Amino acid sequence: MDKKTSIILSTYNEAPVIEKTIGEIFKHVKNAEIILVDDNSPDGTFEKVKKINNTNLKIFSKKTRGLASAFLTGMINSEGDIVGWIDSNMDSLAIHLPDMISKLDNNDIVLLSRYVEGGEDQRSKLRVLSSKAVNFFCRMILGSEIKDYTSGIFVMKRSVLTDVVPISYGHGEFFIEFLYRANKKGFKIIELPFTQPPDKEGMTKTASSIFRFSQLGFFYITRILFSRFRRD
To answer: What's the rounded Cα separation, in Å, for the pair 66 and 55?
Structure first.
């Protein structure tokens, strides 16, 4: 019997795409459960998902206070031997999940990466530049073994969580610290190339304003330095 795989989705205003993302995950992953954590979306995302009749879909609506809190909520409520995360507005990436899961036979964490051979980022120039800058800083401060600290698309063995539990505050920067700590603990991490598609119109929340963009950059840099010098 295939091991149960729990895929966590965090949503905010993704009513136009969320049904397709859920459908693609169930299509490509056998014995999957999806744990969806909605951050009080005002566009009806939660109401739309509630209409999906599938016992392998768990839905939670709460003020998550960031992606890290949403991931922790999903993780606590997951039952799979394998736990993963995929961006809820990137339905096209679900096709990679079977290959990622198969690679867990010889690895502990499988990560999709834009910065290994064959990877690419098709987003706006500003977002590509900022992502490369953050990852360059990560590799300089945290180590160059991992090329893409910020893709956030991964699957892992549940056993990883016995030694490395994500610290549940912040936005995507929580994942940087999680990967760094997992690598430091000796877990085997492999990166597979993928192409990050252009942002869907109206779906970009990370850089909704220059102020927000700058604020997130500060949070990322602070978290990277904190991760490097924090005593476990």
So the answer is: 26
